[in-house]
Amino acid sequence: MKASSAKENILKKIRQALANPVPVPFPQSEGNTSVFQPSTKDLEIEFAENFTGLLGRFSFCMDERELAEQLQHLVEAKKLKSIYCNEKVIRQKLVNWGFNNFTATDVASCDASITGCELLIARTGSMLMSSAQASGRTVSVYAPIHICVAYTSQLVYDIKEGLQILKDKYAGKLPSLITLATGPSRTADIEKTLVVGVHGPKEVFVFLIDG
């Protein structure tokens, strides 16, 4: 089938452009400095303000013992009956301090899920997660309530810094999925009205432990 003249003209221009690439006019201008001003606050405060500003729930814990106590209060307040956690290290630490509410055998039947994260991004109030974590791809997005447990040592200021840390951690072989989650899921696709919890967790909690 013969291509139309308009289509042929477009393809011809594309071929010409590929054959004679135009050099970047200012090669030294890309990536030298950040477009964002450095933070003037502690990273913990910066993250908490940005995360809660996007409807996330934030709590600071001095240690794992306080984490277990606060989680118990949350379970009672929300009347959560089944919690799923696939991360053995987090689960064992909580069990050691008396929190043993892990009755869900899979994420499909749970009221809430508990995961860790790779890092926390202070500037955007985001959790940086990957498929290399024990929780995999689905646990943080499938449960109606997502609870993330993180440490202050996992805080970084910006996404660029976080991605560089992941490159170093995985020696250049990045996980197949790297995702940023900032508060509960939301969409404004329907009549431009913001709706929360349509295609992911309706509530997201971050418990930040000092350490």
Write a short abstract of this structure.
This protein is an alpha/beta fold. The chain is built from 6 helices and 11 strands.
Structure, explained:
The protein is of the alpha/beta class. It has helices at residues 5-19, 43-53, 64-78, 88-96, 139-142, 159-169, and strands spanning 57-61, 83-85, 112-115, 119-121, 126-130, 145-151, 155-156, 178-181, 186-187, 195-196, 203-209. A hairpin with a 4-residue loop joins strand 4 and strand 5. The protein has a single domain (40-188, 202-209), classed as Rossmann fold (3-Layer(aba) Sandwich). The mean pLDDT is 87.
Distinctive features:
alpha/beta; Rossmann fold; 5-stranded parallel beta sheet; 4-stranded mixed beta sheet; 11 strands
